[in-house]
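Subject: design request, 385 residues
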């Protein structure tokens, strides 16, 4: 195994399934960087079990620099039929198998293997490393890292996220946001429906408001969109409510999702849904206030990624990979969190999303070496080195 592959084997060896702590892996990276004189900042979650890492090579430079970023968590292996131990990187036929081998410890291994070279170069602008947690769940790591960057007024020139794209260049994806709407009614005997207020009935009214909004979005598709369908969509995922068929239901919870088309700001849409629902249900609640009510909470909100004009990352990667066309993808990444800071972002990394999240996830060795070469060339030709 070469250096990149050995680093990948070490990273895969940490079981960083999102439900578990990633601190062991973060400490490993911190110690590795420390060995080359690169200091890290560790940004921990509120309970301390998870952490993001931020490190800068050539931190004395005042220039904004480039960020190389990846998530350290992986999806679970439970219920999957693996040929070999998912947390032991195993080579077969030019492929390296293991959980996270492509999504996305591969890119992190490529970046880390270049650190010894980078620290020897006289860098004219900083190279920042940013590694996150919980990308596979609620992207709370990226949100925390973005807050850290905002607090420190860090606004890099562009961010390179190495999600598996077979080194194709991605500059657009939809957002994903998850909401819960809780409706509280007033229970009573089912034979006297007017003596209470049925939360499930009100839930139906709320869902109708949501479906009308979905129709409104569908009626105004984005012209020239690269997405199918070319508009923001909603999904009613889970509905829970009631305790018995002869009791007026006191509670109803609706869990729903919105996938925002790039360019469609979700905040005013959600406010509109809320206002319409509140207005519609107000008279029903009136007699039972303040017991009855409706409340929508945002569980998470992953912003979409929009193409930006004159994106330096996209320009250099297009030139070096000779792939003029950028792509829009159906999966969400952490890119939108960085873009909200006002920086350009490109998603481009080794391995294929087709292998991600499955049993026998793998990355081709040739993809790893091609990615190392690409990062090296980008840092050289962008004048970073
Ligand atoms: Zn990923």
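Subject: RE: design request

Done. Sequence follows.
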């Amino acid at each position: 195994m070469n250096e990149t592959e050995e680093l990948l084997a070490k990273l895969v060896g940490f079981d960083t399934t999102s439900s578990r702590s990633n601190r062991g892996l973060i400490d490993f990276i911190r110690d590795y960087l420390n060995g080359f004189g690169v200091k890290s900042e560790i940004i921990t979650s509120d309970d301390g079990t998870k952490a993001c890492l931020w490190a800068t090579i050539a931190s004395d430079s005042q220039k904004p620099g480039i960020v190389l970023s990846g998530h350290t968590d992986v999806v679970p292996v439970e219920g999957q039929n693996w040929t070999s131990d998912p947390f032991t990187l195993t080579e077969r036929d030019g492929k390296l198998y293991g959980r996270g081998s492509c999504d996305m410890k591969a890119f992190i291994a490529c970046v880390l293997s270049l650190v010894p070279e980078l620290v020897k170069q006289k860098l004219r602008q900083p190279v920042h490393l940013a590694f996150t947690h919980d990308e596979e769940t609620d992207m709370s790591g990226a949100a925390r890292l973005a807050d850290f960057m905002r607090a420190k007024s860090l606004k890099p020139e562009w961010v390179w996220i190495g999600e598996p794209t077979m080194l194709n260049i991605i500059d657009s994806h939809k957002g994903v946001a998850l909401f819960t709407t809780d409706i509280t009614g007033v229970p009573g005997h089912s034979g006297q429906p007017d003596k209470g207020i049925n939360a499930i009935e009100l839930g139906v009214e709320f869902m109708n408001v949501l479906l009308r909004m979905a129709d409104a979005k569908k009626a105004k598709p984005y012209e020239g969109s690269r997405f199918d369908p070319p508009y923001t969509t909603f999904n009613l995922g889970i509905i829970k409510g009631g305790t018995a068929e002869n009791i007026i239901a006191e509670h109803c919870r609706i869990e729903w999702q919105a996938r925002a088309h790039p360019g469609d700001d979700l905040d005013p849409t959600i406010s509109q849904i809320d206002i319409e629902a509140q207005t519609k249900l107000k008279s029903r609640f009136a007699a039972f206030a303040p017991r009855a009510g409706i409340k929508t909470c945002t569980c998470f909100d992953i912003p979409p990624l929009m193409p930006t004009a004159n994106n330096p990352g996209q320009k250099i990667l297009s030139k070096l990979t000779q792939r003029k066309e950028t792509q829009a993808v159906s999966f969400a990444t952490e890119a939108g969190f960085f873009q909200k800071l006002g920086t350009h972002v490109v998603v481009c990394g080794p391995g294929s999303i087709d292998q991600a999240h499955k049993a026998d996830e793998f990355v081709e060795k040739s993809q790893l070496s091609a990615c190392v070469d690409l990062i090296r060339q980008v840092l050289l030709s962008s004048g970073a080195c």
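The longest strand covers residues 293-302.
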